């Protein structure tokens, strides 16, 4: 419930400041979440980046203003943060299919997006394989890249193509199994996994893309040379661990699993999303694999009635 309360608080803030140059950090500031974590929550629950939602709301209000007043197009463009009438017109046509001038005509159909309101929705929840685990602080090392939400596969493909995956695998002490996965760690996982959102300093981050820092990584072990790699400390945390289906390629299961975690599990679990990165671990079975998604959480304390 707390997560939904904070999301709705953010939507109210957006409506109250819709004419401002709203950034992800501004909206998240009225919640308990960092910009990264708020953007990730919103992305999976609303099925769109926050920047897309804000743009759609601005253009919806602009369309309504054109039909109900004689405001000039250039004034609307300035009001909603566009640097010229041309850039405003291009965005307007993309959403509504007509120019701002044509939108004044009677009977014109426009695409209006109403303000979002979040609430629990029961929708035939699929079975989820999950557990809660506690882990002490540990370190990982690897290769990182800023990617668009839900598009971590770009880094995997790049590292496979340029040989950097094999180098990371060798430097981590990996040995191939017959199924092609790295020789299992003590917990049975492949040597190489991934983390996402492990840094809040978005160097090179483009706000409109609402991306995240994604990293192919291995756990730091005694004697491993981490020179030339990024080393990240993962703090002690409580983790909610979710297992994917067993398939030929487990990576393809993760977008749907993340969506299920954020839209179905978190709102009713009694846990809230805590600060810290998501983790992906991969496990091999004969000719197939499955993945585990690790999400840091904190238990929501129930309010006792007096």
Give the C-level CATH assignment of the largest domain. Answer: Alpha Beta
Q: How many beta-strand runs?
A: 9
Question: Which class of secondary structure composition applies to the elements?
Answer: alpha+beta
What's the SSE pattern?
HHHHHHEEHHEEEEHEEE
CATH names the topology of the largest domain as Multidrug-efflux Transporter 1 Regulator Bmrr, Chain A
Main sheet?
9 strands, antiparallel
CATH architectural arrangement of the largest domain:
Alpha-Beta Barrel
- What is the approximate shape? elongated
- What number of domains? 2
Beta-strand residue percentage: 15-25%
Overall pLDDT confidence? 85
| Terminal Cα span | 20 Å
Radius of gyration, rounded? 23 Å
Number of helices: 9
CATH homologous superfamily designation of the largest domain: Regulatory factor, effector binding domain
Instruction: Classify the helix fraction into a percent range.
Output: 25-40%
Unreliable runs, pLDDT <50, ≥5 residues?
201-209
Could you outline the blueprint of secondary structure elements for this entry?
Elements lengths: L1 H15 L7 H5 L6 H12 L3 H19 L4 H7 L5 H12 L32 E7 L2 E11 L4 H10 L1 H8 L21 E4 L14 E9 L10 E5 L2 E7 L10 H16 L1 E3 L4 E8 L2 E12 L7
Antiparallel strand pairs: 1-6, 2-4, 2-5, 3-4, 3-8, 6-9, 7-9, 8-9
Helix pairs in contact: 5-6
Describe the 3D structure.
This protein is α+β, with helices and mostly antiparallel strands. The protein folds into 2 domains: 2-104, Arc Repressor Mutant, subunit A, CATH 1.10.10.60; 129-299, Multidrug-efflux Transporter 1 Regulator Bmrr, Chain A, CATH 3.20.80. Helices cover 34% and strands 22% of the residues. It is built from 9 helices and 9 strands. The protein has helices spanning 2-16, 24-28, 35-46, 50-68, 73-79, 85-96, 153-162, 164-171, 254-269, and strands at 129-135, 138-148, 193-196, 211-219, 230-234, 237-243, 271-273, 278-285, 288-299. Strands 1, 2, 3, 4, 5, 6, 7, 8 and 9 form a 9-stranded antiparallel sheet that branches. A hairpin with a 2-residue loop joins strand 8 (278-285) and strand 9 (288-299). Helix 5 crosses helix 6 (85-96). The longest helix has 19 residues, at 50-68. The radius of gyration is 23 Å and the shape is elongated.
